[in-house]
UniProtKB/TrEMBL annotation:
EC numbers: 3.6.5.2
Annotated InterPro entries: P-loop_NTPase, Ras-related_GTPase
Keywords noted in UniProt: Hydrolase
Record's signal peptide: none
Lineage: superkingdom: Eukaryota
Catalytic activity of the protein: GTP + H2O = GDP + phosphate + H(+)
Gene3D superfamilies attached to this UniProt entry: P-loop containing nucleotide triphosphate hydrolases
Organism, as annotated: Rhamnusium bicolor
Enzyme class: hydrolase
Recorded GO MF terms: G protein activity
Name of the protein in question: small monomeric GTPase
PANTHER family linked to this entry: RAS-LIKE FAMILY MEMBER 11
Amino acid sequence: MKQICVDDGQELSLQYGCQFYEVSAAENFAGVSLAFQSLLREARSVQLLKALPIRRKLGVNSVSKVLGNIFGKNSKGDRKKRPSLSI
Protein backbone atom coordinates (compact mmCIF):
# COMPACT_ATOMS: atom_id res chain seq x y z
CA MET A 1 0.00 0.00 0.00
CA LYS A 2 1.30 3.47 -0.91
CA GLN A 3 0.83 6.40 1.43
CA ILE A 4 1.74 9.99 0.62
CA CYS A 5 1.58 13.23 2.57
CA VAL A 6 -1.60 15.28 2.04
CA ASP A 7 0.47 18.34 1.10
CA ASP A 8 2.29 16.34 -1.58
CA GLY A 9 -1.01 15.12 -3.01
CA GLN A 10 -2.46 18.62 -3.10
CA GLU A 11 0.69 19.98 -4.75
CA LEU A 12 0.53 17.30 -7.44
CA SER A 13 -3.15 18.03 -8.08
CA LEU A 14 -2.30 21.70 -8.64
CA GLN A 15 0.63 20.78 -10.87
CA TYR A 16 -1.51 18.53 -13.08
CA GLY A 17 -4.69 20.64 -12.86
CA CYS A 18 -6.89 17.91 -11.42
CA GLN A 19 -8.96 17.25 -8.32
CA PHE A 20 -7.37 16.05 -5.09
CA TYR A 21 -9.07 13.28 -3.11
CA GLU A 22 -7.87 12.06 0.26
CA VAL A 23 -9.13 8.48 0.56
CA SER A 24 -8.12 5.31 2.32
CA ALA A 25 -8.30 2.09 0.31
CA ALA A 26 -8.08 0.07 3.52
CA GLU A 27 -10.91 1.88 5.28
CA ASN A 28 -13.22 3.13 2.54
CA PHE A 29 -13.57 1.33 -0.78
CA ALA A 30 -16.53 3.53 -1.77
CA GLY A 31 -14.37 6.66 -1.47
CA VAL A 32 -11.73 5.15 -3.74
CA SER A 33 -14.42 4.15 -6.23
CA LEU A 34 -15.92 7.67 -6.26
CA ALA A 35 -12.48 9.25 -6.71
CA PHE A 36 -11.71 6.92 -9.61
CA GLN A 37 -15.09 7.60 -11.27
CA SER A 38 -14.49 11.33 -10.93
CA LEU A 39 -11.06 10.94 -12.52
CA LEU A 40 -12.63 9.12 -15.47
CA ARG A 41 -15.28 11.85 -15.89
CA GLU A 42 -12.56 14.53 -15.86
CA ALA A 43 -10.49 12.66 -18.45
CA ARG A 44 -13.56 12.21 -20.67
CA SER A 45 -14.43 15.91 -20.43
CA VAL A 46 -10.91 16.90 -21.46
CA GLN A 47 -11.02 14.43 -24.33
CA LEU A 48 -14.34 15.85 -25.58
CA LEU A 49 -13.09 19.44 -25.34
CA LYS A 50 -10.00 18.59 -27.37
CA ALA A 51 -12.20 17.04 -30.08
CA LEU A 52 -14.17 20.27 -30.60
CA PRO A 53 -13.14 22.40 -33.57
CA ILE A 54 -11.20 25.55 -32.75
CA ARG A 55 -13.27 28.66 -33.38
CA ARG A 56 -11.50 31.61 -34.93
CA LYS A 57 -12.19 35.04 -33.56
CA LEU A 58 -13.60 37.49 -36.07
CA GLY A 59 -11.98 40.87 -36.46
CA VAL A 60 -13.94 44.13 -36.42
CA ASN A 61 -13.83 44.40 -40.22
CA SER A 62 -15.13 40.86 -40.66
CA VAL A 63 -18.00 41.47 -38.27
CA SER A 64 -18.82 44.72 -40.06
CA LYS A 65 -18.91 42.95 -43.43
CA VAL A 66 -21.14 40.19 -42.11
CA LEU A 67 -23.57 42.68 -40.57
CA GLY A 68 -23.55 44.71 -43.78
CA ASN A 69 -24.43 41.61 -45.78
CA ILE A 70 -27.19 40.66 -43.37
CA PHE A 71 -28.85 44.05 -43.10
CA GLY A 72 -27.83 45.36 -46.52
CA LYS A 73 -26.05 48.60 -47.19
CA ASN A 74 -28.21 50.92 -49.24
CA SER A 75 -27.10 54.34 -50.27
CA LYS A 76 -29.61 57.18 -49.95
CA GLY A 77 -30.43 56.98 -53.66
CA ASP A 78 -30.93 53.22 -53.50
CA ARG A 79 -33.50 53.24 -50.73
CA LYS A 80 -36.95 52.28 -51.78
CA LYS A 81 -39.67 54.66 -50.79
CA ARG A 82 -42.21 53.32 -48.40
CA PRO A 83 -45.71 53.29 -49.81
CA SER A 84 -47.90 55.97 -48.36
CA LEU A 85 -51.62 56.20 -48.06
CA SER A 86 -53.46 59.49 -48.46
CA ILE A 87 -56.96 59.94 -47.18
